[in-house]
Model the fold of this input.
Amino acid sequence: MTTYLFPPSPIPAIPVAGSNDRYPVRRIFCVGRNYEAHAKEMGVQVDREAPFYFTKAADTYVPSGASISYPPGTSNYHYEMELVAVIGKAGFEIPREQALEHVFGYACGLDMTRRDLQLAAREQRRPWDLGKDVEQSAVISAIVPAQQCGHPSSGAIELRVNGEQKQSSDLSLLIHGISDLIAHLSRYYHLTPGDVIFTGTPEGVGPVVAGDHIAGSIAGLGDISLTIQAA
Done:
């Protein structure tokens, strides 16, 4: 009989709205620079070519409403409010016109980022892992099944810090929509249930400090929140 040297880590699992079901997370893909205004505020000119990605470990997931500690190794910790799509049907080299058939549902997401480390890596043309693949940095609200919310292609996406509006945009401004992202990503990965896609953030990103409260929303998908614990 197989035995483990130590107890395996629990499987990260996102609640599904209106049920007791949980969606087990396998992989987290994140799309970079998918709103033109955000790319410009980061000092990058969008060329509107193929999307690019970075990843976060599945165990970076934390639920909406959590309180987390300010992470080590940074003095410039940023929020990024995003639409999240989760895969519900396996596929490879998925045609764009069939891509939405592979989506189980959608959620609000916060891609928390050590911005100083990300920018330092970018300047040196190194991977973004230290800036992006951060413990407790993939905050996700309860998933709304697509059969309930449809497939959002427009609608308000907003974020506030301590009640002050910081991000306000519309999903229609995504450079690469859900169908395009799934079609493109599935050329390189066999997508399966458990795969989560953060679709990018609009302009207005900025830093938070210990004691701050973050609250965001996406039309039709509800709210998300996060508290940065005071020291």
Notes: The longest helix spans residues 115-123.
